[in-house]
Write a structure and sequence with these properties.
The protein is an all-alpha fold and about 120 residues long. The protein contains six helices and no strands. The protein folds into two domains: about 35 residues; about 80 residues, Cytochrome c-like domain (Cytochrome Bc1 Complex, Chain D, domain 2). The termini are far apart. Bound molecules: heme C (HEC). The site of heme C (HEC) has 25 residues, from helix 3, helix 4, helix 5 and helix 6. It is found in: Cellular thylakoid lumen. Keywords: Electron transport, Heme, Iron, Metal-binding, Photosynthesis, Thylakoid, Transport. Its main location: other. InterPro entries: Cyt_c-like_dom, Cyt_c-like_dom_sf, Cyt_C6, Cyt_C_IC.
Length: about 120
């Protein structure tokens, strides 16, 4: 009986892990492949960032948005600091270092700063 329950628990754990992990892995591979062919920063933003940062907002942490005032307040007002958060992620924002090239991350950083200066118009 005890053996059976350990077996069951192990099996459920494996199934649960795969249910969680496989779709995530597929999504990540797809995103990497899609990104490879895209060089336009506004398109990269649309695909990778707009889900949380539509029009420069932030649906998860409202104060940590991409408007110039917030970027200045949170010290993300240089291309270098923006590139760092894109590459490494932070808290609920995932890292993009393995999904975007260095060039794409640099272009995106400049794009965000320019958009912020234009008030995301
Ligand atoms: C799943 C939602 C999500 C996605 C997708 C996402 N972010 Fe974020 N982003 C966040 C969260 C949450 C924070 C706040 C992190 C913190 O400081 O705790 C954040 C913070 C930032 C900041 C700092 C803003 C500030 O005022 O402090 C920048 C810049 C940024 N993200 C850029 C991007 C870029 C560029 C992309 C796409 C490559 C992206 N984010 C994708 C959720 C996301």
């Amino acid at each position: 009986m005890r053996k059976l329950s350990i077996f069951t628990v192990t099996l459920i754990t494996i199934i649960a892990f795969n249910l969680f992990y496989i779709p995530r892995a597929i999504a990540q591979i797809n995103l990497t492949q899609i990104n490879q062919n895209i060089h336009e920063p506004s398109k990269l933003f649309e695909i990778n960032c707009a889900g949380c940062h539509l029009n420069g907002g932030n649906i998860i942490r409202r104060g940590k948005n991409l408007k110039l005032k917030a970027l200045q307040k949170n010290s993300y007002d240089t291309p270098e600091s923006i590139a760092t958060i894109i590459t490494n992620g932070k808290n609920n924002m995932s890292a993009y270092g393995d999904r975007l090239s260095k060039q794409q991350i640099n272009d995106l950083s400049n794009y965000i700063l320019n958009q912020a200066k234009n008030n995301w118009k």
